C-alpha cells in the first residue's frame, strides 16, 4: 500500500458488535463504506487534531472507523464494531465510516480511493460507496463524490489484482470529464439518479425530478377529484361535477317548463 496504516489509536465512542442490533435495530452486517469529511477546509484542522478529538476528548459523542489524509490512515474503531458517525441507525449499524481530509488534495483523494480498494480486498467484495449526506441532511462529505471515489477505487482494485480489465477501462472513462468545467460521467449519473429519488426523513431532501413528478401526480389527482360524483358520507362531490350536475338539472327543469307551456298552448288552440 502507498500509505501508512496506524492502529495504535482507539476512539472513545463506539458500539460493540454484540450490542449493535439492540442499539440500532439492525445487525452489524457491513454493506457499505460511507465517506465523511472532518470539517470545513477553512477550519484548517489537522489529521493529528482530528485523531485526538475522537480518542482523547471525553466530551466527544461521535467517532469514525478510520481517519484519512494524504499518505496516512488511522484505524480508530475495529470494523466489527459500529462507529457513531452517520446520524442514522442503519447507517451506523452497517457502514464502515471514513473521515477524510476536507481539502481533498490529489494525495488525499488518492489515499481515500486506495483505502476503499483495500477494504474491498479485505472483504473480498465490492461494497457500495455512500456519502454522509445519503444518511443525514448535511453538506458532509463536501467535495468528495461517491461516484468519483468508487470509479478511481475500482481502477486501483483491478490494478492490484493484476492489471487493467474491461471494468477498469469503463471506470477510467467514467472519471474523466469531457472539458475543464464538465462533470464526470460518474458524478452526472449519480446526480441524475438522486434527482429522481424520494427523500428520507432527517436524511435527505426529495430529488427535484421526484418533486416535479409528485406535483404532476397531485395536480392530476386534484383534477380527477373535481369530476368525482362523490359518495354520501365518504367524500364530497367534485366542484366541476357539481357544476355540471346543477346545469343539467336546470336544463331538465327548463325543458319540463317548456313542455308544459307547449302543451298549454296546444290545448288552448284546440279549445278555440
Number of strands: 8
Widest sheet: strand ordering: 1-5-4-7-3-8
| Cα-based radius of gyration, to the nearest Å | 32 Å
**Number of distinct helices:** 10
Secondary structure elements and pairings:
Layout: E1 4-6, E2 14-15, H1 20-24, E3 32-37, H2 47-56, E4 66-69, E5 72-75, E6 82-83, H3 89-94, E7 95-100, H4 106-123, E8 128-131, H5 132-135, H6 146-160, H7 166-175, H8 185-195, H9 208-226, H10 239-271
Parallel strand pairs: 1-5, 3-7, 3-8, 4-7
Antiparallel strand pairs: 2-6, 4-5
Describe the structure.
With 272 residues, the protein is an alpha/beta fold. 48% of the residues lie in helices and 11% in strands. The protein contains ten helices and eight strands. The strands form two sheets. A six-stranded mixed beta sheet has the order 1-5-4-7-3-8, with helices on both faces. 31% of the residues are buried. The mean pLDDT is 85.
Q: Key terms for this structure?
A:
48% helix, 8 strands, two-stranded antiparallel sheet, single chain, 6-stranded mixed β-sheet, alpha/beta, 272 residues, 10 helices
